[in-house]
Amino acid sequence: MKYLCSIIFVLISYSVVFGESIHDDLNHMSLNMYNELAKKHKGHVKNFVYSPYPVADILGLLSIGARGETASQIKSVLTMNLTDEKIGKEFKVLGKSLRSSDKISIQTAEKMYVAEGLVIEPEFVKVAHDSFDAGVENINFADSKAATKSINSWVEKQTNNKIKNIIPENTLDDLTRLVLVNTLYFKGNWEHPFKLSATSKAKFHNTKSESVDVDMMKLSATLQIGKDDSFGVSILRLPYEDDKAELLIILPNEIERFKPIENQLEKLWDIQNYTSTRVSVFLPRFRVESTMNLIPLLKNMGIKLLFEGADLKGITKEPIGVSAFQQKAFIDVDEFGTEAGAAAAAIADNRAVLEEPSEVFRVDHPFMFTLMYDGLEIMSGRVEKL
After folding, report:
1. C-alpha to C-alpha distance for 139 and 115, rounded to whole angstroms
2. Is residue 259 packed enough to be buried (19+ CB in 10 Å), middle (13-18) or exposed (0-12)?
3. Residue 155's pLDDT band (boundaries 50, 70, 90)?
4. C-alpha closest to that of 214 among 90, 65, 363, 8
5. How much of the chain exceeds pLDDT 90, in percent?
6. Are residues 309 and 180 part of one domain?
7. Which of 32, 103, 180, 259 could form a disulfide with 241 if both were Cys (CB 3.0 to 4.6 A apart)?
8. Are residues 234 and 307 in the same domain?
9. Is residue 224 within 8 Å of 243, Cβ to Cβ?
10. Mean pLDDT for the chain?
């Protein structure tokens, strides 16, 4: 039984391609985020993981409170050429779709912590409540220790104690005006669990000349695989018990194909023909953790004014700007399922079948992954070295 937790909090002190649905828009934003992270780590062997949904949710709310070019830049990155009213409606529907079933647990939560004495525009509070289901709490940021404890406790509760101390001591002070927090929590099991007894040591090739011993999980099941031989890539879909959730493993056919494929990820969208086949899967247990400052990334994507001269008069008439925007994330994959989590801060056994596998999907070299729920990317990243 594994988990996904995602938290994002925004600390506020003193040629766009538009999709046919909010899922398309946000998945396109996720692709852009991946490209920026890959550029950042160009020339370095670096695993990373990030959660696009909480980033998008906070940006969606901020876009409604922003004005002028500040709002335009945010909407451009969200790839949403929509009115504020339509953005609110889209995120409201999306939030309601991220709900638990009898097979998995998934929940989202959002909250605004407002400095005592700061007047928030009533319309913004209404939109935050009605469209983003965000609660509001007045707090004394000048009492840094108490404010930090209060927010961290709320985050821990929303993430089943998976994320602790998201706000470090001495981060908040009397200049802090507003903190926005968004959480996403997921818990589920594989539809086809890997047998624990089948896991054994095997080689994972970080490069053609370097390999390490890893715990390699094994599974034989009928699964969907998509291929593009000309592009040199295969994609395995690993479903959870709730068929809305799945983990995509994006595997280059050769080690040398990792970078070329990563540089042209949009081509993966062209892979539409998935074939159900009996397959033997060899997948290493893996855990990836990342902490990243999202301001440079978002600036490169086109959001600049939010961090340098923001117009947020739709939130409050008091001059404010985003001083920090960070995310912490992790993903942990084992025989039973996936544990993943993200925190962003700106100051988220089947029985054997007597049938011979017709194909082998061996993940023994660098790969990429995407955790999907109902067609929405909620966690993505890469494993380049184990």
Report:
1. 5
2. middle
3. confident
4. 363
5. 51
6. yes
7. 103
8. no
9. no
10. 85
Per-residue pLDDT tens digits for 241-281: 998 999 999 999 999 999 999 988 888 877 878 999 999 99
Which residues constitute the domain of residue 246?
A: 196-284+350-383
* pLDDT tens, position by position, 73-115: 999 999 888 899 999 999 999 888 887 777 887 777 788 888 8
Whether 300 and 167 share a structural domain:
yes
List phi, psi (to 5°) of 313: -70, -15
DSSP lists the bridge partners of residue 180 as: 10, 112
Burial status of residue 173 (CB atoms within 10 A of its CB: 0-12, 13-18, 19 or more): middle
pLDDT of residue 59: 93
Residues 116 and 140 in one domain: yes
Q: DSSP state, 254?
A: S
Q: Same domain, yes or no, for 153 and 60? A: yes
Helix (H, G, I), strand (E, B) or coil at 340: strand
Those residues with Cβ within 8 angstroms of residue 161's Cβ, 6 or more apart along the chain or in another chain: none
- Do both 242 and 300 map to the same domain? no
- Strand 286-293 and strand 326-333: the pairing is antiparallel
Q: How many Å from the N-terminal Cα to the C-terminal Cα in the chain?
A: 23
Name the strand (E) or helix (H) holding 301.
helix 294-301
Measured in degrees and rounded to the nearest 5, phi and psi for residue 127 equal -65, -45
At CA 184, angle to CA 285 and CA 335, rounded to 5? 20
CB atoms inside a 10 Å sphere around CB 20: 7
Residues 146 and 72 in one domain: yes
| pLDDT at residue 23 is higher than 90 | no
Q: Residue 357 belongs to a domain with what CATH number?
A: 2.30.39.10
DSSP assigned state of 246: E
Q: Quick one: tokens of 98? A: 């991220």
Q: What is the CATH number of the domain that holds 24?
A: 3.30.497.10
Q: Which of 258, 279, 265 is nearest to 370 (CA)?
A: 265
Q: Residue written as tokens 């909090």?
A: 9
pLDDT, position 271: 81
Q: Between β-strands 105-115 and 338-346, what pairing exists: parallel, antiparallel or unpaired?
A: unpaired
Segment 326-370, tens digit of pLDDT:
777 778 788 887 655 554 444 422 223 334 557 999 999 999 999
Are residues 128 and 9 part of one domain?
Answer: yes
